[in-house]
Amino acid sequence: MSDAAVHVGSGKVRELYALDDDRLLLVASDRISTFDVVLPTPIPDKGRVLTGLSAFWFARTRELVPNHLLALHDDGRSTECRRLEMLPIECVVRGYITGSGWKDYRATGEVCGHALPEGLVESQQLPQPIFTPATKAQTGHDENIDRETAAGLVGAERFAEVERIALELYGWVSDHARARGIILADTKLEFGVDPQGRLVLGDEAFTPDSSRFWPADSYAPGGPQPSFDKQFVRDYCEELGWDKTAPGPELPDDVVAGTRAC
Ligand code: Q0Z
């Protein structure tokens, strides 16, 4: 029997290894990406913070939906997960109109087939949260799709289930955050199916890499909102006049320290 973990995938800031047929090891690095480029300077402890946030939310939401988390390793950055058959859609819930949702709304008045009120401004709260699925792009950006397209990819019954659960999760977590002065603008969830055919929440959940968190006390609709975790890095990169193509710039100590303090 071998204990060697086999590398099976790389994300921008995370690595995925197979432990055996049933278990994966998800490792969050200290890398940081901005404007879609991974920067050469790590943020010490960022991987542990990301892993801890996911573990916190998996524990808090397990009554709503089972999740893939089996164990948190002592290094704080690695988690053992149940290996699932992942659904081929990103399950995005938006309570506020921003990012690609804002782009689509400005172009068409709709997001993923949801007709929205006229006259919304950037970052405005929506009348109610909407489920806005997207394709999983192998390279480049995920593409927003309407409910019919998403239901075609996962089946109508599974679509209805993930829509209901994703909206429930967003409602629960956004209420929790809002009571603590934080707006959860939107979130991207990934679900899989276990060998018994049950829906399971996988990947990472409610981290700043999968969600937009905004400080409620400075919320000002009508433009983009500052990012909770990456604003120091973004501001520094804008100051530099970097063209936002790889390779990204090294970060000075004060920008690393400012980001760590978030
Ligand atoms: C997650 C990803 C990462 C690269 C596959 N429980 C699971 N079962 C099966 N597959 C996955 C999971 Cl989480 C799975 N990804 C995304 C994560 C590096 C890709 F850390 N891909």
Gist of the model:
The protein is of the alpha+beta class. The chain has helices spanning 46-60, 99-108, 147-154, 156-178, 231-240, 253-261; strands at residues 6-10, 14-18, 23-28, 33-34, 37-38, 69-72, 78-82, 85-86, 89-96, 110-111, 114-115, 125-131, 134-135, 182-193, 199-202, 211-215.
Textual characterization of the structure:
With 262 residues, the protein is of the alpha+beta class. 29% of the residues lie in helices and 28% in strands. It has six helices and 16 strands. It has helices spanning 46-60, 99-108, 147-154, 156-178, 231-240, 253-261; strands at residues 6-10, 14-18, 23-28, 33-34, 37-38, 69-72, 78-82, 85-86, 89-96, 110-111, 114-115, 125-131, 134-135, 182-193, 199-202, 211-215. Strands 8, 9, 12, 13, 14, 15 and 16 form a seven-stranded antiparallel β-sheet that branches. The radius of gyration is 19 Å and the shape is globular. The mean pLDDT is 97.
Task: Describe the SSE topology.
Blueprint: E1 6-10, E2 14-18, E3 23-28, E4 33-34, E5 37-38, H1 46-60, E6 69-72, E7 78-82, E8 85-86, E9 89-96, H2 99-108, E10 110-111, E11 114-115, E12 125-131, E13 134-135, H3 147-154, H4 156-178, E14 182-193, E15 199-202, E16 211-215, H5 231-240, H6 253-261
Antiparallel strand pairs: 1-2, 2-3, 3-7, 4-5, 6-7, 8-14, 9-12, 9-13, 9-14, 10-11, 14-15, 14-16
This protein binds ligand Q0Z.
